[in-house]
Write a structure and sequence with these properties.
With 348 residues, the protein is α+β, with helices and mostly antiparallel strands. It is 48% helix and 14% strand. Strand 5 and strand 6 form a beta hairpin.
Length: 348
């Protein structure tokens, strides 16, 4: 007999989207003949990791919903066990009542010893009622026990299916994240080699998503955590921090905050791989410590267009985007990026 204590049931999570995802043929990592090469691999793996995470989180949320259903089933099973115990009690009471009313004699013997037809009829009726009560109680007890066994088997089967599919979801998610991490650091290694040589590898052309931005200005990355801010101090800088840092993983697409023209693509120095864009009104934005660039010098870009992928090249202590707003293309003319973007409707 399985333990009556049972972990909550969860409706099995659908794996169709992830099955398609895993079955898709993947480009060999870093294949020079593939469009975008390793940079494209990183972007693709980001998308796959995001899908895997969404499926995993959807399963987790469904688990919370199903937890209530499981608790209701446990209460139902508890009531069924109580009903069975009550039926067994009824059987015992009927047996004891027959023994007491008959003085230990069987009902057939009582009928044979009846003194009158009326007493005989009463005896027959008593036998019939007693037999009916016993038969009903036994039938109800057997039905309740069968129902309880079926419910327990259903609960066990659903839980086993859930455990198996949740394990598959988690394994798929871990596999994609491992591939992504390997691709990220391979991309970073290529970037470090470019910085050491002082020569950029050229723009990586990626299939950019159709964003359809209606606003003129956007944040330089879509998802982020703010780290070191403009004007902050510390041992990492000779003076004050000249920009706003965004904590993001290696390979994260970096966007031009507004329309403009690329005036600089550089792969050496403290900023590592960097891109500078000139905007209307005489302002310049800088995107530094990149792992790859996706634009060429002199190219015009739109708001939200990818100009590179984040990394940790140059004087960097970890993966992040260093973003600056300047009055000139050169270092030393920076303004607070958060305030500058806020006046243009972008609040970080």
């Amino acid at each position: 007999m399985r333990s009556r204590r049972r972990r909550p049931l969860i409706v099995p999570v659908l794996l169709c989207a992830l099955a398609v995802l895993v079955a898709r043929p993947t480009t060999a990592m870093g294949d020079a003949d593939a469009p975008g090469g390793l940079s494209a691999d990183v972007v693709r793996l980001y998308d796959e990791a995001s899908l895997a995470t969404q499926q995993y989180e959807a399963g987790r949320r469904e688990a919370e919903v199903q937890r209530g259903r499981a608790q209701r089933l446990e209460r139902l099973l508890a009531r069924e066990r109580e009903d069975i115990a009550a039926l067994h009690g009824d059987l015992g009471r009927i047996a004891r009542a027959q023994y007491r009313s008959g003085g230990g004699l069987p009902h057939t013997a009582q009928m044979l010893l009846a003194d009158s037809p009326e007493e005989l009829m009463r005896g027959q009726r008593a036998v019939w009622q007693a037999d009916l009560a016993v038969n009903n109680a036994v039938t109800k007890s057997r039905r309740a026990e069968a129902r309880l066994a079926a419910d327990e088997e259903k609960a066990a089967s659903a839980w086993q299916t859930l455990e198996r599919r949740n394990g598959e979801l988690a394994e798929i998610k871990r596999g994609i994240e491992k591939k992504l991490e390997e691709a990220q650091w391979t991309l970073q290694g290529q970037a470090d080699a470019s910085v050491a040589a002082g020569a950029c590898r050229g723009a990586v052309r990626l299939d950019q998503p159709r964003t359809g931005f209606t606003q003129l200005w956007v944040a330089p990355v879509e998802t982020y955590e703010l780290s070191s801010g403009f004007g902050s101090g510390g041992d990492r800088w000779a003076s004050r921090h000249t920009g706003q840092d965004f904590a993001v993983d290696i390979g994260t697409p970096v966007r031009s905050v507004g329309a403009g023209r690329v005036v600089k693509v550089s792969c050496g120095g403290a900023f590592g791989i960097e891109v500078v864009v000139k905007h209307a009104g005489g302002y310049y934005t800088q995107y530094a410590h990149l792992a790859a660039v996706t634009v060429e010098q002199g190219e015009r870009v739109a708001a939200g267009q990818w100009v590179g992928q984040s990394g940790t090249t140059g004087n960097s202590t970890g993966p992040h985007l260093h973003f600056e707003v300047r009055l000139t293309p050169q270092l030393g003319s920076g303004v607070d990026p958060r305030e500058w973007l806020a006046t243009r409707g972008v609040r970080l």
